[in-house]
Description:
Number of helices: 7
Order of helices and strands: HEEHEHHEEEEEEEHEHEHEEEE
Strand content: 25-35%
Largest sheet: 11 strands, mixed
Radius of gyration: 20 Å
Shape: globular
Distance between the termini: 31 Å
Amino acid sequence: MRSAFDEAVRVVARRGPAVLTGDDAQTPVASVLNRARLFIVPHECPQKLIDDYLTDEEIQRQQEAFFLPYSTTAMQWDDEPNRCCVFWNSVPEQVGMHDLTHALYLEAASHKRVIAVSFSLRFSHTHSYTNYSKRFSVIGNKGQEWIDPLSSPDDFRRESKRLREYMGPLLGRIMMFNNPKFFVVEDTPPTYKAEVARRKRRPRLGARPWPSGVRKTYTFLTPAKIRERMRLPGMLKGLAPSSHERRRHLRRLRSPKFTHKQGQVVIVKACWVGPSEAVVDNHRYRVLLDV
């Protein structure tokens, strides 16, 4: 199955500079794809896990606490690479869902073609995601369209439900993974060093986005799943229980016992027990504690 992310990278590389044109600014597509951290997340997820971490109370809290793991984050399901969505913040260090979050939806369509829709999202009081800004057009070198834009209102109305059905679970999964009991795991493929060396030898390649096969990718996992993937032993007796492991996160002090700091947001330091890095089948896995 073709990767929508890689198809967009290929088109940018072959067709020249392309930009997302909005009302007030132009955003280079290559820049969005290059700075994105690509997360490949499991599509299958036990319903109990979703119920435990994505309660109505937690969804309500996320209106204030929601954040992308990186300022530009690309997300795709592990079993559906032909579709991908890139999210990026509208303001630096954005927290909460009251500010706009920009999004670029990519889909590998017919042979060597990619559908792209770019718009912005904001969280509403009904817990649904709503489009606020109008779609961008996508243009390539000398004004030639290099990606199929959904330009007409009829096109967008036809596709908007399908887009919401795709992106809603992705954003919901980010909400769930924002719980500090989940960790971000970085996967460096064996081809990464060779690509770094190639780009040093050929500086003109520096601005081209990296395909997924040679770039670092990321996912969210619990400590038990991390040890399973990294082939590490489980927790040893006498050590702190794995439930105490947490990644660095922000916490608002709400209890009245915090007489001088009640209502303030503080940083809770990360905690991990044992090795946080391992090489398995030539892939280097690293647990990122401070994301």
